[in-house]
Prior knowledge:
The structure holds two protein chains of two kinds. By secondary structure, chain A is α/β, with parallel strands linked by helices. Chain A has helices spanning about 5-20, 40-45, 60-70, 85, 90-95, 100, 135-140, 150-160, 210-225, 240-250, 265-280, 300-305, 310-320; strands at about 5, 25-30, 50-55, 75-80, 110-115, 145, 165-170, 180, 195-200, 205, 230-235, 235-240, 255-260, 290. Chain A has 13 helices and 14 strands. Chain A is globular, with a radius of gyration of 19 Å. Chain B is an alpha/beta fold. Chain B has one domain (about 5-320): Rossmann fold, CATH 3.40.50. A five-stranded parallel β-sheet of chain B has the order 1-2-3-7-6, sandwiched between helices. In chain B, strand 2 (about 140-145), helix 6 (about 150-165) and strand 3 form a beta-alpha-beta unit. The radius of gyration of chain B is 21 Å and the shape is globular. The termini of chain B are far apart. Classes of the chains: A alpha/beta, B alpha/beta. At the A-B interface, helix 3, helix 5 and helix 6 of A face helix 5 and helix 6 of B.
Amino acid sequence: MRELRYLHAVQEGIKQEMQKNRNIIILGEDIRHSLRGITKGFFEEFGGERVIDTPLSEIALVGAGTGLALSGVRPIVEFQLSEFVFLAFDQIVNQAQKLRYMSGGKLSVPVTYIVPSMGSRGGSMAGQHSDITYSYVLQAGMKVVVPSNAYDAKGLVISAIREDDPVMVYLPAKCLAKKDIVPEEIYTIPLGKGIIKKAGNDITVIAIGHFVQVALDVADITGEKGISLEVLDPRTLLPLDKDLIKNSISKTGRVIIIDDSNKTCGFASELAAFIAEELFDYLKAPIRRIARTVVPVPFSAPMESFVIPDKQELIDVVHEFDI
Amino acid sequence: MTAFSKSKYLEIYRKMKLIRRFEEQALKLAQDGEISGSLHLYIGQEAVAVGACFDLEVPDMITSTHRGHGHLIAKGGDIRYMFAELMGRKSGYNKGKGGSMHIAEPALGILGANGIVGAGAPIGVGAALANKFLKNKKVVMTFFGDGALATGAVHEAMNMAAIMNLPIIFICENNQYAVSLSVKDSCPLKRLSDRAKSYSMHGISVDGMNVEKVYNAARDAINRARNGEGPSFIECKTYRFYDHSIGVDKLGLKYRTDEEIKYWKNRDPIKLWENRLIKEQICNKKQIEEVDNAVEEIIIQAIQFSRESDYPPPQDALKDMYSNNYDDLPVLGWIKIKK
């Protein structure tokens, strides 16, 4: 059984899909030499017509993705950093995401955005290179997937490419190096389907991206103390697998949401609201959220650790429940 | 200068007249409360849309603006479905989902009007890139105004089109105002087509009230694009006779002098073209009247069609958001909690 790093699993998924469908073009900055590593070897294999380095023009990059998608091509747009989404915000949420609806279904925008998050796994990238930006686009109803492991990453990126709507694929930097068993053939994982990574009885931990592994590690620790965590990975943030969440919370009655984006109006807020609204009767305790402190990520390491949640916060919150 | 056939001269007149009458009737419908929201009238600029689009084929694409009814009609838009869309009917081009500023009909190559100034240009660039990749010989024409030249979107789009040598024509309709902002306060150039030089792109400025001048420049640009010679920029100097929109008109902002408006109304492109046709004996007054009557008939029937069309049921608001649907999408604003 072959193991692949998460980054290479994403790479393989995109490559195999581009081999299969000659109408896929990938655009971005520094993708021919593959600064980010996702498109390494693509220029050599697919040529300059299908692998395009654009000028530093995020508005034109995203707009071109939309125009390509409207015109019979299936484009993939790579953002070099997740904050670059801000530069093209109108083209993403006000154009690409809205065109189908405003046209009464006549226009269709089958574009896939690949968004690597924090620039380095080690951090210290400071305020403008450390954001995780999916909450901004979720509010517009944009489909978002956040794979937590290499196996899911390949299947989800292929599904995202095949989806006929805009989809943002967020690749958490802290997942990129992790290896997992990844089938060599093309396979898909459907959007909108989460997964229980570890069954448990006492608390549902809904973890996003790299926090899935953190939650699993914490589950081992607290398991020894007699607290059984059920770790739920939504995999797709929109559409959300509400049934999976309902089944889990109806069993445990307690929930912690751990998400590495800003707390205010972030994805954890959305989950908490949904759980409070629709699953209130199952709750034995208030919903708990762990997310980022709402400041720009500070440069110096001790401060950065303070604002970004980690294992210890999750352990502490677990112990605050009365079980 | 090209010598047109008589029927071509008349067809150009007919198209401009159709746009004019559409806009005049849309204004009336809005004043009578049959069209809601805002309208950005194209009155006075008809020569640009008609001249620019005349030689485009059906599969060629355009992106349009908030002031886009002229482009849409020039590209072949059906007057019935346009009125119906403006009147919010289900039979409108976009089922009432978009309204005036977002009309789209991909079957006619209309990739959409756009409510954000300049935003259509990068989308047009993408379409042109697709055409180049697919080798389908289609060209893209993207419209924007003088105000849009200041946007990052247009700059990035023109730059990218030049770098990638794309089959696209940038039409800058310089009606000299972006709402109340004079083009003199928006762009340091006297000739907006000088902008093209900075992108190593072919650029030309023409009198936008002279439909033949617009036509000639567009024809050259279209040929250039189709032959793989890359993008072009055409400035058409024109004027809008009405205010920015019906909403702004109500505010009575005095940013243009009466003399200036009068000067430009005397250069009405439709009147100029009609006068030329009569003077050069290309056709007579009776033939012009026949065209006018035919146009009027189309307008009347289209309005009737729209008035007789149903509004969409409210729940249609939940449709058309996604191509691939899932149980809980679109996200509802409110739900019944079952007890």
